What does this fold into?
Amino acid sequence: MPAKSDTPFVTYGEEESAFYFDHIHRVEPFERNNHYHSTYEIYYLISGERHYFIKEKLYLISPGNLVLINKLDIHKSIISGSSEHERVVINFSDAFPGPHSSHLIQGMFGDGQPIIPLQPAEQAQVMQILSKMSQEITAQKEEFESYIQLLLSELLLLTRRFKQHSQSQMAYPDNPLHHKVTDIVKYIHQHYSEKITLDLLSQHFYISPYYLSHIFKEITGFTIISYVNLTRIREAQRLLTETRMKIIDIAAVTGFESLTHFDRTFKKTLNMTASRYRKLYQWPETK
It folds into this structure.
């Protein structure tokens, strides 16, 4: 009998584009080095079970759970027991749902309640919308993108309703290790501009370097150094787009010890140089 392999059903667009849709059944372990983006994300788990680290907390995700990820929030889906699972991911920009639906986004992402466990009837409604999106992407008939916009608006409207009536957030129960890792993540967010090493964190939080490294990777899915670098690069992106600071100064204020290290890390994370990123995404000056 042939070994099982990952089965992609439908993929459309890129995560940083106006709209991205990806439906896949995974059986192999899957890792990303960088996971945050300038678009919103809706993650829907169809089957299997996942751990999901979002911003500062770890959640257990079960079939029928909707996950809402805000722009630029670091997040990662992690194996829970078996690697096998089926899910749909949608990424979209502020503008994609259209001006008449932009109000649906407000207050729904980044409010500290990212998980919505759906009832069976709600799951059926979501799957119906996702199936229609998949069909439109596959057929690509005339004005299919306009129809996808309408379907996304419908999904956002239903999600807002589901969220209003949802109580459980599926976060892990009180656990000293999870609290400790949350404290470490908060420390990194506050001190990314300073020197941060495994030894320094170990001394600050009274944990051995080996144990700290182990529990951080287990709970977040990231190594300490990769999480620190992601936090720094995320802030560098903001400064590149919102200010006219020199790149060498941005490297310094985001905690990189040299411009060379900054350039290498930025390119590895975003597949482009910082100067190229600035040209593509810097906000126009207001007059």
The radius of gyration is 20 Å. The longest helix spans residues 144-165.
